Amino acid sequence: MLKNLSLFLFSTLLSVYLTEVIIALTLDPLTRVNEKARSYRRQQPGFDRRTILEVLEDERKTGKEVYPFIPLIHLYREKEMDALFQEKTLPLGSIPFSNLILCNENGYFAQVTHDRYGFNNPDSIHDSKIDIIAIGDSFLHGQCVTNGENPIEILRRKFTNIFNLSVSGANPIHELALLKEYGLYTGAKRILWFYFEGNDYKVDDRLSKTILSHYLNNNFSQRLISKSEHIRRLQLNRTKELIAENRELNFHAKPWEFNPLDILKLRNLEEAFKNIFGNKKKKELSPLFIETFEELKRISKEMGLDLTIIYLPDYSRYANDSSLFNHDKHLRRGEILAFFKKLNINVFDFHLILEKKSDPLSYFPYRRFGHYNSAGYELLATAVMKNVLAEPNQ
Prior knowledge:
The protein is α/β, with parallel strands linked by helices and 394 residues long. Helices cover 42% and strands 8% of the residues. The chain has a single domain, classed as SGNH hydrolase (Rossmann fold), CATH 3.40.50.1110.
């Protein structure tokens, strides 16, 4: 009997670890899905395989003054950010009056032109009344599509006076800071706040906790709107320094590497169960996340602003075709939506549009992990026009 028990335990353990190895070799945990997607795209016919530095060099040969977009957390070291913040000159956007090279997910390197404050807008919008403020991260900044194809530019076909305050790499507390530094000065009464489920619930990095959290204070401001010329010099000088160091300037996730310790600890199997059944041991929402949206709600109510959160779903939601996949538990969707409802904030859930499509993955570059492609952004903008910005009688 002891022999049979030992055989049973050995067979069970062997089956578990075989499953773990299969998952590790075939599925796409978040630690390597980005790298695999980039590798796949680079193999496609006509895909521009140059590095950002090579693109930069080629563009400059034509006489064009262009710079790579570098996220704030990569642009400055921690001590430099601390010093700039003490001086109240820590930039929150990108380089004012600049042409920037963004990412390449669709076969070409996207480029954008920034306005006087360092955001992706035609500068002429500041010569007239602003009606709508749009705030988000890379999805709204322009990653990774050509001019005219990002959702805000599509919305401008009908709603011309939209101030796009989005910047790649921003999280909600960063976006709240942008609203306070720039958006509230416009007098606009409508805010479109784009929440990306892939990472917007993560606000516990050092920059957010030690610096940006000051924006939870009602009266705090760096007065950045009046310091554009100084910010342009700061960011141009720092960007040129990084270019001179001949860095690759590629800030994607590190390539995935096989880790035997992860296999021994059944990490991939654990991750698979979490994605399917949800994580019962999940942490509570970060206090900083909660306080950020409570402050956003307070500002909106106090100033009489029409606030709508547009919920943007991640690629992983459609890449998993398991019948056991739980959409509400994945990336804490149900929890986040319930939190917004508790705050009495209007929400438009773009997932409800995408899930009805026969092929949701077709709205992502080469059907792989990444931002939306031009068709995805067109679908998003059309849905926002119809469900958020349409007049009641339309």
